[in-house]
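Exercise 3.2. Students should predict the tertiary structure of the chain below and write it as structure tokens, then compare their answer with the key that follows.

Predict this chain's 3D structure.
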Amino acid sequence: MSLQERLVSGDVRALARLMTYAENDYPEATRVIKELYDKTGGAYVIGITGPPGAGKSTLTDKLTKALRARGKTVGIIAVDPTSPFTGGAILGDRIRMQDLFTDQGVFIRSMGTRGHLGGLSRATQTAVRLLDIFGKDYIFIETVGVGQSEVDIVKTADSVVMVLMPGLGDDIQAIKAGIMEIGDVFAINKADLDGADRTKIEIEMMLDLNENREWRPPISKVVAVDNSGIDDLLERIQNHRYYLESSGELVSRRLRNTKQELVSLIRDRVVEFILEESGERFSVDRLVESIASKDMDIYTAAEEILRKIKK
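Answer key:
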């Protein structure tokens, strides 16, 4: 059978091979998705994000087990920091989820960021589509430990769970608007530590600033390592899904995300085209030298490239 036939039939090896193709930017992965694109859209994608050390991996592990207990199949994409030696993912997340490896209803893939900013890998969206075609009911995307500007998960996930913990030191620094605004559900992990109630109050205060938001993100206190509060958190995620579906916001969100992905893909292809064409139709290096010597300004150089592309 072909790779696409094996993928649809539930062949895990075919899925793993296509994931590798996606990470290495081989055209085979996109070719398969093109042929099977009508089979996408069935999975519900949940983003798990938050600062390093908040317990995202353990929380993902427990939520996955809760969904499996309900008979749902799950795919997990764990985005890890990239090894400076091999370029692969540092597999810290998979170590914390090793109990799931014997579960045939769960597929776990670690992906290195490979220098890509935003908390995700460049291949994340392709991996999501492969898992979707494969037939997973839910897909978790666990981002690398994010900072104030790494919010790409909101462009991919249907629901975003923001994981925080007490005792982060400067709590106000942790609650920056840029990253906090993307949360649909908040989880205060390690809630048995001192300061959990204070963290909850500060999140509530931040949410009070946005009076125009139709959905007010709920806050769950959990202790993931003890499996405490997991069912409550999962219920709140399901409530957000119901809200999105009943209000029509799920369709709007997916359309918005698709548009952003399309624009990003076009931008990348245009840049690749410009660099490949450099020297034949125009010289990027020559233009850079002209800009550096002040013979040309950078805006005119950009206009010249675009003008020659249009011809």
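Discussion points: The beta strands are 44-49, 74-80, 106-112, 138-142, 159-164, 185-188, 219-221. The radius of gyration is 22 Å.
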